[in-house]
């Protein structure tokens, strides 16, 4: 009986990062990687973005396991959130599992999770319908692996992040013989890294990159601030080696980096002398020519940390005149604008900026010819470019066409597409809904498109608040509108605009009060619409308009007799200015959106008051 196979991307296609792919074989779901991505500029206030798992929640009993290719955030970053909902085993290499444990340990809900399984390139796991095996690849982190799912219909191969480097050291080397053997056994579908597919030039070898770092350290006078991704173990080792050869000490910034460095050292993936590392307090005592500050930032992302250093916002270590900021990680193309802004900040602070990518092609991902070599070794029937924006996936597809692969055997997928193999044919079936889940502070998924839209509008055009008090029973406005604006216009310089806005509010509110079918929702929407049209006509801006309608009822009849105040007790002070008719009782404030039938009279007070009535509780969205 032939196997029915479905391949579903939950992230990692038409975007940078957030790699997560599900392969469904005869009802069993195998998860390949579980990563996050760092937000782009328009995601205001969002910390990170992870995949949406609604489909997996509905099929949680069918999930077999999670298989990880390497320890970077784009492959393991979403694991803490995933494991808080799905109690399934996780497989990865020793280094990958160690980093995954650090990530999971920071999440209180899953800090006690312990179903990790360490595998290597020689491991083979038989799940019945599927046999899972692995192969060694070259990347910027040791023990990076590709994954093979062997089915009755052929093998499904997921490369993970990879490149080919003939000078790679032990722990980073690609097993070319294993790749050839996988290809000889027959590959049904190849899910292949596309992050560097546009680049036609060969990547610099890691030996060349190490020499470039050492040369920069040797000829630079003054402090060097090295910006690097925390989990880029290979680059950190090169920085340590260059520091030793040039007589410098290294200061690590942040607890995340320290955990990763010490974990890698304990596993033998990093080697250095104990006296190499110094504390931030010791930096000031050393000559600037003897120090290196290794900055990785929160969650291993260094660019925002550099901005804080340039703006003097760090507690101890900030950019000083004469510092060199050396960026040894190649940021994604989506970060180009942010990196340019960061460079500007550093120069304003008196520092200089140098990026290793300015001189060498330092990517940790396969360029065009590497991708073609992988396809020639694997000889897949179908190619599924992954890990990159659409133009990168398309560049990968073009590289496959140059090798003679039929166009209808190449699938550029979107999130939620379901690629189905049945009866000897691969085709796109009905997709599923897959969106992004945004993490803001401790909130997971509670920020959606509506909130982001409001944040964007607030950032662009500000907010316009109009407060008005009405007496619905008498059908009149009790107090003139009070208008407050933030981030929209300078109120004192726009008195005519504010006065006209007040008149529009009064007119709109009065029209609604005169309407027999009075409705709170309609009133507020009416105010918004009239104000929005007027403000746009006058300013060509669309601020967030927040009408706050308050209600007060001033002339309810007395519901009981009040006791006279004691003669030896002073009369209560008035709550507001103005005189109230003798014996008249105050009503408690009522929310403006409360239905008329729900308005109740307050109990009579037990001593006389001479005051006006406080307005009802404000009603707002």
TrEMBL record:
Comp. bias (Basic residues): 555-564, 602-612
UniProt region (Disordered), positions on chain: 555-621
Residue stretches of biased makeup (Basic and acidic residues): 584-601
GO BP of this protein: rRNA processing
Cellular component terms per the entry's GO annotation: cytoplasm
Keyword line: Cytoplasm, Endonuclease, Exonuclease, Hydrolase, Metal-binding, Nuclease, RNA-binding, rRNA processing, Zinc
InterPro entries: Metallo-B-lactamas, RibonucZ/Hydroxyglut_hydro, RMMBL, RNase_J, RNase_J_2, RNase_J_b_CASP, RNase_J_bac, RNase_J_C
Cofactor(s) essential for the protein: Zn(2+)
Record bears the keyword Transcription: no
Origin: domain of life: Bacteria
Span of domain Metallo-beta-lactamase: 17-213
Main localization (coarse): cytoplasm
Signal peptide location: none
Enzyme Commission number(s): 3.1.-.-
Pfam family, one: RNase_J_C
Record localization: Cytoplasm
GO molecular function list: 5'-3' RNA exonuclease activity; RNA binding; RNA endonuclease activity; zinc ion binding
Coiled-coil regions listed in the entry: none
NCBIfam families linked to this entry: MG423
Subunit structure: Homodimer, may be a subunit of the RNA degradosome.
Function: An RNase that has 5'-3' exonuclease and possibly endonuclease activity. Involved in maturation of rRNA and in some organisms also mRNA maturation and/or decay.
Family: Belongs to the metallo-beta-lactamase superfamily. RNA-metabolizing metallo-beta-lactamase-like family. Bacterial RNase J subfamily.
Protein name per its UniProtKB record: Ribonuclease J
Source taxonomy: Bacteria, Bacillati, Bacillota, Bacilli, Lactobacillales
Gene field: rnj
């Amino acid at each position: 009986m032939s196997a029915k196979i479905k391949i579903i991307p939950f992230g990692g296609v038409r975007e940078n990062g957030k790699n997560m792919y599900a392969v469904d074989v005869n009802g069993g779901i195998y998860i390949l990687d579980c990563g996050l991505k760092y937000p782009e500029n328009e995601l205001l206030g969002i910390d990170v973005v992870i995949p949406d798992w609604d489909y997996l929640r509905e099929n949680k009993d069918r999930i077999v396991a999670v298989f990880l290719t390497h320890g970077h955030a784009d492959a393991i970053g979403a694991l803490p959130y995933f494991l808080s909902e799905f109690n399934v085993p996780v497989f990865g290499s020793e280094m990958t599992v160690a980093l995954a444990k650090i990530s999971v340990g920071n999440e209180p809900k899953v800090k006690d999770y312990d179903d990790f399984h360490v595998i290597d390139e020689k491991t083979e796991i038989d799940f019945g319908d599927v046999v899972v095996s692995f192969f060694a690849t070259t990347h910027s982190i040791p023990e990076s692996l590709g994954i093979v799912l062997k089915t009755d219909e052929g093998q499904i191969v997921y490369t993970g992040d990879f490149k080919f480097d003939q000078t790679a050291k032990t722990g980073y080397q690609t097993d070319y013989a294993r790749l050839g053997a996988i290809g000889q056994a027959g590959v049904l579908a190849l899910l292949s890294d596309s992050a560097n597919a546009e680049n036609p030039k060969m990547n610099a070898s890691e030996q060349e990159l190490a020499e470039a770092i050492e040369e920069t350290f040797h000829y630079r006078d003054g402090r060097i601030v090295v910006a690097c991704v925390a989990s880029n173990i290979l680059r950190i080792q090169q920085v340590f080696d260059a520091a030793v050869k040039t007589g410098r000490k290294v200061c690590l910034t942040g607890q995340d980096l320290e955990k990763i460095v010490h974990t890698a050292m304990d596993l033998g993936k990093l080697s250095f002398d104990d006296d190499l590392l110094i504390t931030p307090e010791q930096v000031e005592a050393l000559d600037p020519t003897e120090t290196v500050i290794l900055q990785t930032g929160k969650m291993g992302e260094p660019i925002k940390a550099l901005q804080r250093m340039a703006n003097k916002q760090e507690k101890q270590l900030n950019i000083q005149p004469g510092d060199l900021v050396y960026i040894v990680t190649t940021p994604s193309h989506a970060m180009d604008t942010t990196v340019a802004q960061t460079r500007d900040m550093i120069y304003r602070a008196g520092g200089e900026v140098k990026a290793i990518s300015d001189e060498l092609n330092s990517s940790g991902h396969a360029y065009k010819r590497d991708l073609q070599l992988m396809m020639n070794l694997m000889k897949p029937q179908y190619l599924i470019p992954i890990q990159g924006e659409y133009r990168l996936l398309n560049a990968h597809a073009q590289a496959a066409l140059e090798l003679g692969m039929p166009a209808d055997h190449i699938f550029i997928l979107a999130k939620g597409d379901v690629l189905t193999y049945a009866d000897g044919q691969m085709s796109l079936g009905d997709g599923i809904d897959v969106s992004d889940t945004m993490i803001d502070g401790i909130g997971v998924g509670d920020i959606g498109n509506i909130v982001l839209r409001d944040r964007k509008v607030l950032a662009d055009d500000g907010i316009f608040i109009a407060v008005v008090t009405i007496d619905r029973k008498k059908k009149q406005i009790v107090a003139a509108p009070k208008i407050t604006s933030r981030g929209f216009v300078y109120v004192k310089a726009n008195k005519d605009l504010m006065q006209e806005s007040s008149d529009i509010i009064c007119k709109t509110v009065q029209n609604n009060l005169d309407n027999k079918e009075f409705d709170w929702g309609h009133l507020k929407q009416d105010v918004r619409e009239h104000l929005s049209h007027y403000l746009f006509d006058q300013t060509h801006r669309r601020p967030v308009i927040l009408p706050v309608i308050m209600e007060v009822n001033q002339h309810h009849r007395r519901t009981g007799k009040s006791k006279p105040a004691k003669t030896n007790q002073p009369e209560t002070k008035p709550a507001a200015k103005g005189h109230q008719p003798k014996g008249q009782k105050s009503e408690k404030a009522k929310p403006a959106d409360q239905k008329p039938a729900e308005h109740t009279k307050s109990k009579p007070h037990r001593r006389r008051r001479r005051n006006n009535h406080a307005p009802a509780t404000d009603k707002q969205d």
